[in-house]
Structure formats: structure tokens, C-alpha cells
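User: Some background: our group keeps a shared notebook of sequences we're curious about, and every so often someone picks one and asks for a predicted structure to add to the entry. Today it's my turn. The entry only has the sequence so far, pasted here. Could you supply the structure so I can complete it?
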Amino acid sequence: MTNPSQPQSNGPAHCGSTPKKIAIGIAPLGIVSIGVVPMGIVTIGIVPMGVVSLGVVAMGVVNASIVGMGIFSVGITTMGLKVWSPEGAALQQTLENSDSSLKNIYAYPTRSQAEEEAKKFGCLGVHKMGNLWMPCATHGTSE
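Assistant: Of course. Here's the predicted structure to add to the notebook entry:
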């Protein structure tokens, strides 16, 4: 008879169980995890969470993904201390090639102030950045 308080040793490691060296599956927990919502040191999958995360929505220290959140992020939409994305690269290139009046992107305490600035920049919408509002729907686009 098995003790329900002890994790099973045959099968993938899951949330709340002892991590395996390699875990594959739904919510696998391991040193190297591959699957849907993998958690571990190196994670590859749909929503990977770990030190190094590769996937669709990655959360960790180093991320390569479509949506990455962490210290170092590479992807389409990235949030972190150091980020690289095609949108960010396009925005940087636009700012470097524009006149000096366009090199200042401001954040405002109210949505209405950011909407006014968005009209001046020729873009649509605003987006929230922390407690402030910024012109344009996203960084680097005019839509």
C-alpha cells in the first residue's frame, strides 16, 4: 500500500512533488522541464517558469518567448530589466533617425494627458507603464 503523503516515484513530477532531473508533461516540475506550464531550472513549453525559460509565455530570469517577463527577456512582447524585441528595436531605430523633438517619450500621471500626446505623435491609444500613462497603444507602434 502506498502512503498518500509521499510523492510517487514513477511518473512525472508535478507541482508539490519532489523535482525530477527531467520532467515532461502538464505542469512538470524538474531540473529540466518540458511541457504545459513547466517549472524548473530550464523550462521549455507553453507557460514556462524557471531560471531559463523558453516558450510562449515565459516567466523567469532569462526568457526567450513571445511574451517574456523577467530580468533578461527576448521576444515579441517583453518586460524586464534588459529586453530585446522587434518592436523595441524598431522604436529605437525610429527614435535615432528622427529629429531631437521626437526623442523624448514621456509618461504622464493621467490617461487624458497621454491621449493628448498620442495625438501629437500621430499614434492611437495609450498604455499603462507602472503608475503612469504613455502615448500610443504599445511601444514602437502607431496603431
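Suggested note for the entry: The radius of gyration is 21 Å. The first helix runs from residue 86 to 97.
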